[in-house]
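Standup notes
- DV: blocked on the single-chain target, sequence here:
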Amino acid sequence: MTDREGKHLVVIEIQQSIVLRGIKNKLEDLHFKVTNIGADIREISRHAGKVDLFVLYLSESITDDVDSMTLLNEIIDEVDVTGQKMILIGEKDFLVDITRKKKNLSDFDRFYLPINMDKLGDMIDQLVDDENDGGQSRILIVDDDPAYAKVVRGWIGDKYQTNIVLNGTQAITFLMKNKVDLILLDYEMPVVDGPKVLEMLRSEDEVKDIPVVFLTGVGTKESVQRVMSLGPAGYILKTTSREELLGKIKAVIASHKKEK
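- DV (later): unblocked, structure below
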């Protein structure tokens, strides 16, 4: 298997496009693993945070279709929450214009038509390799409140590689495919709560030794005792400051590395 065959790209097709399908075929010719999904936010949500890169083709005709623009907004929100990397492909003038109108699109890399596939392949290699660079520790945030999770990512994202999932099932799926150095786990979540997720993690050999720090909104003595009785690497109150959060994360990761 070539190095590129291990890189999984998801091509998002908001509108049917011969150009995009041609790009998909050429990416496969460059030996990337490519999955093509259509205008289905459920499929986008299922892949977000679990693959190496999204490829999103945008044509000017998208602005004439209300449903397509609504889907674009949903895609932006989903990718923003998970921290998924994405490349935008399209005509230069149009991409410049739409990223000016939709500020959160400016966070993504752009590749302009006409496509030079060798250059696009090199760009994808660089983006994916940077993401997988072991220089920074990687943290997974598991919290059903995307607004709070994004705050945490904003606080720590300049020091750590950070990904977000919104429930325990997504966490297990993510961890089966990705290595992380620390898990920040919401104690109270619907359906599958933090303690149950921790129990699931401890039953899987591949992930059982990853340090887990609970995020909790209640700091009473009884609640803290209940949290710590489960044997996590620690706990963090959701009311904590950025400095306290960074200090706790640094201490837990350093302690875990010493134990190895």
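- Follow-up: Residues 196 and 204 are 13 Å apart (CA to CA).
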